[in-house]
Amino acid sequence: MHYGDVLIKFGDYIDASKTELPYVSDETKVDKLKSSFLQDGDIIIADTAEDDTVGKCAEIQGSDGVKIMLGLHTIACRPKKKFGPMFLGYYINSPTYHNQLKPLMHGIKVTSISKSALQDTDIIIPKSTDEQIKIGVCVLRLDHFIALHQQKIDNLNFPLTKVGLYLENSIV
């Protein structure tokens, strides 16, 4: 998975069992890299971007049987302890965490962040895994709610655009 996938294609978490991911077709090459496959709970961080989206991440879920590997300009993080699903993905992409990264970014046209800089950041977590799960589910539901309403807005704008074009072409 390349940094562009993390920055643009995927959200805060990836359900690998339901998502079409880029893949390597040569199984002999893939088998040599078995030890580096990503697992549920792993975080993929984009370490390079042309703006301040450096540090955007995606949390892996549903990876059972799916071979996921890192691509260019990404950093894999495997938490030492287990977190509630989706909690870290949402937290690391939050303004609270991302604001810690801004002073650690370097570069002018292309901005980057290093592994060592990421190690100097703090993550505030609820002690209870149950609370982490509830937070992850709550934010997921909010994401779906927002996406649903955005789709409704987009559908409303489409007919208005057509009416505007019709009126524009009708005026002589």
CATH H-level homologous superfamily name: DNA methylase specificity domains
Order of helices and strands: HEHEEEEHHEHH
The overall average pLDDT, rounded, is: 87
What gross morphology would you assign?
Answer: globular
Biggest β-sheet: count, sense, barrel? 4 strands, mixed
Rg estimate, integer Å: 20 Å
Helical fraction equals 40-55%
CATH level 1 class label: Alpha Beta
Judging by the overall fold, what is the CATH architecture?
Alpha-Beta Complex
Report low-confidence residues grouped into runs of 5 or more. Answer: none
Using the coordinates shown, work out and report the CATH topology: Adenine-n6-DNA-methyltransferase TaqI, Chain A, domain 2
Question: How many strand segments?
Answer: 6
GO molecular function: DNA binding; endonuclease activity
Protein name: Restriction endonuclease subunit S
Family: Belongs to the type-I restriction system S methylase family.
Domain Type I restriction modification DNA specificity: 32-156
Q: What does this 3D model show about the protein?
A:
Belongs to the type-I restriction system S methylase family. Residues 32-156 form the Type I restriction modification DNA specificity domain. InterPro entries: Restrct_endonuc_typeI_TRD, Restrct_endonuc_typeI_TRD_sf, Type-I_RS_S_subunit. One of its GO terms (molecular function) is DNA binding. This is Restriction endonuclease subunit S. The chain has 172 residues and is α+β, with helices and mostly antiparallel strands. The chain has a single domain, classed as Alpha-Beta Complex (Adenine-n6-DNA-methyltransferase TaqI, Chain A, domain 2). Helix content is 42%, strand content 12%. It has six helices and six strands. The chain has helices spanning 3-9, 27-32, 87-92, 95-101, 115-119, 129-170; strands at 13-15, 43-46, 48-49, 57-61, 74-77, 111-112. It has a four-stranded mixed sheet with strand order 1-4-2-5. A two-stranded antiparallel ribbon has the order 3-6. The longest helix has 42 residues, at 129-170. The mean pLDDT is 87.
